[in-house]
UniProtKB/TrEMBL annotation:
Source organism (scientific name): Streptomyces murinus
InterPro entries: GCL_type2/YbdK_subfam, GCS2, Gln_synth/guanido_kin_cat_dom, UCP012666
GO MF entries: ligase activity, forming carbon-nitrogen bonds
Gene3D superfamilies reported for this sequence: 3.30.590.20
Claim: Ligase is one of the keywords in the record: yes
Protein name per the record: Gamma-glutamyl:cysteine ligase YbdK (ATP-grasp superfamily)
Length: 505
């Protein structure tokens, strides 16, 4: 979840100095861009997946410290709450059989992690929100024992000045309050990174924004929170509300939330980092000793530590990232739209769809963002989160007359976006076998109108019809989900419902 920091208290001078350092970092970034100091094209991608820990009964287990100690791998690290882990896969070059290689690495890593979790009677569950999480699980005492999380929680709570209000109306209506940001830990996601040159950044970021709704429509996997059935992808409203530093009065004034889709198409990466400074007060005003402008003047590569830390406390669904590898600076687009799961095959299919689609959209002669109002892209994202694979979008019409029209998500993905994604993967040099296998998973979800969220909801309702209580139905759904996740067939092949009990004797 970002850079390591040490807990402490901040005074007024800390914040003033931090603001000054942020401005120096921004000036440094601008200078690096002008001097063309960034890395050449490398076609590099990376994947991070946030995971849940649950017991054999399907209930969350607050054991990430013990599990990580047993895993003993730098590929795994803590996340916000004690029932969370994150696995990081080393960067890969897009091309060839990259997706099959990624799938094999993930299978090996997650199988090992699951075995180690089993030593403390827990297991890995890869889903957007663990259906069995209750309000009593998401309290500050279950924060991971990491300074950054404690400090971040304290600063967001102080900035808000009152309890957080969760109010999400979907299939059912959830209204409750929280005294900390820990409910955000329920959101377990997949982050897809793509290294880009400064000249390509804006096109790729705009393409990722336009593609986000389709990603959610086919990949939604978070229909439950605190025992309520809400949106098909409930992570975005939960993340927004559980990290919202704005009391109602500031919301009424139109102050921007720290979790947001954005408000316009951009023409450079610099614009997004500049927005971060202009709109969002610092939460963690921790200053590094480095003087970035002096480093640049000496021909070095600055860490821009304050800018990087500040950027990590602003939760864009497509986030700009400044990084350094082998002493050379680079830019990445971090796509944070997707929930984890349901299976490794599904995760890789979602990744293939994203990387192919973004490549194709970014290279169109008439880019979609020149034909689609930004407000429509944001509304599409909201519709996808609410309705999943049954969503309807506004999208540019094909043909000579242009304009926009309404189309259902399945039709748009199947008839227009999948062919674009296929062409994009070809442009990356991905082998046809990888392309067809993983885009075929997306096509089958569209054909059957199934994703993780629809399977969870259908199985839950089947369990209710079978006479189980809500709590028992959610637990049974979670256990069945975990079982099928480990079998590994993609979610469109999962049978709905719970297995029939085996007769005795």
């Amino acid at each position: 979840m970002g850079e390591k920091v040490v807990a402490g208290q901040f005074d007024l001078s800390d914040r003033q100095r931090y603001r000054e350092k942020l401005q120096k970092c921004l000036t440094g970034l601008e200078r690096l861009l002008v001097e063309k100091r960034f890395d050449r094209p490398r076609n590099l991608m990376g994947v991070e997946i946030e995971l849940n820990l649950a017991g054999p009964d399907g209930m969350p287990k607050m054991l990430n410290g013990q599990v990580l100690e047993r895993i003993a791998s730098r590929d795994f690290q803590t996340e916000l709450a004690m029932f969370n882990l994150e696995v990081n896969i080393a960067p890969h070059r897009l091309g060839g059989r990259v997706f099959d290689r990624l799938a094999e690495e993930l299978r090996t890593s997650l199988a090992y992690a699951d075995r180690k979790a089993g030593e403390v009677d827990a297991g890995i569950v890869m889903t957007g929100i663990l259906p069995t999480l209750g309000r009593d699980d998401l309290v500050s005492s279950n924060l991971s024992e990491v300074d950054r999380y404690t400090l971040l929680n304290d600063q967001i709570v102080a900035a808000r000045g009152e309890d957080f209000r969760l109010d999400i109306e979907g299939v059912e209506h959830l209204v409750c309050t929280a005294k900390s940001i820990v409910p955000e830990a329920a959101c377990t996601s997949v982050q897809l990174h793509l290294q880009v040159t400064p000249g390509r950044f804006a096109d790729v970021w705009n393409a990722a924004q336009a593609a986000s709704a389709a990603q959610i429509a086919v990949g939604a996997n978070s229909p439950f929170l605190f025992g309520r059935e809400l949106w098909r992808e409930s992570r975005p409203p939960l993340f927004l509300q559980s990290t919202d530093t704005r009391p109602p009065e500031l919301q009424a004034q139109g102050v921007r939330p720290r979790t947001w889709f954005g408000e316009r198409w951009v023409s450079s990466a610099y614009e997004l980092f500049e927005e971060n400074l202009r709109y969002f007060p610092a939460l963690l005003p921790i200053c590094d000793d480095e003087e970035p402008l002096e480093v640049i003047a000496a021909g070095g590569t600055p860490k821009l530590a304050e800018m990087v830390l500040h950027n990590g406390t602003i939760y864009r669904w497509n986030r700009p990232v400044y990084g350094i590898a082998d002493g050379v600076p680079h830019l990445r687009v971090e796509n944070r739209v997707l929930p984890a799961g349901p299976t490794i095959t599904d995760v890789i299919a979602n990744a293939a769809f994203y990387y192919g689609l973004v490549r194709a959209l970014a290279e169109e002669s008439r880019p979609v963002w020149t034909r689609l109002p930004f407000a429509a892209a944001e509304a599409n994202f909201d519709a996808a989160c609410r309705y999943g694979i049954e969503a309807r979008f506004v999208w540019p019409r094909r043909g000579r007359y242009g304009g926009t029209g309404e189309v259902d998500a399945v039709t748009l993905v199947r008839d227009e976006l999948l062919p674009l994604a296929s062409a994009g993967l070809d442009a990356w040099g991905v082998e046809a076998a990888d392309r067809d296998l993983y885009l075929g998973v997306i096509e089958e979800r569209c054909r059957r109108r199934v994703n993780g969220a629809s399977w969870q909801a259908a199985t839950f309702h089947r369990a209710l019809e079978g006479g189980l209580s809500r709590e028992a139905a959610l637990a049974a759904t979670t256990r069945r989900y975990a079982e099928l996740m480990h079998v590994g067939e993609p979610v469109h092949m999962w049978p709905v419902g719970l297995p029939e009990p085996v007769p005795m004797g």
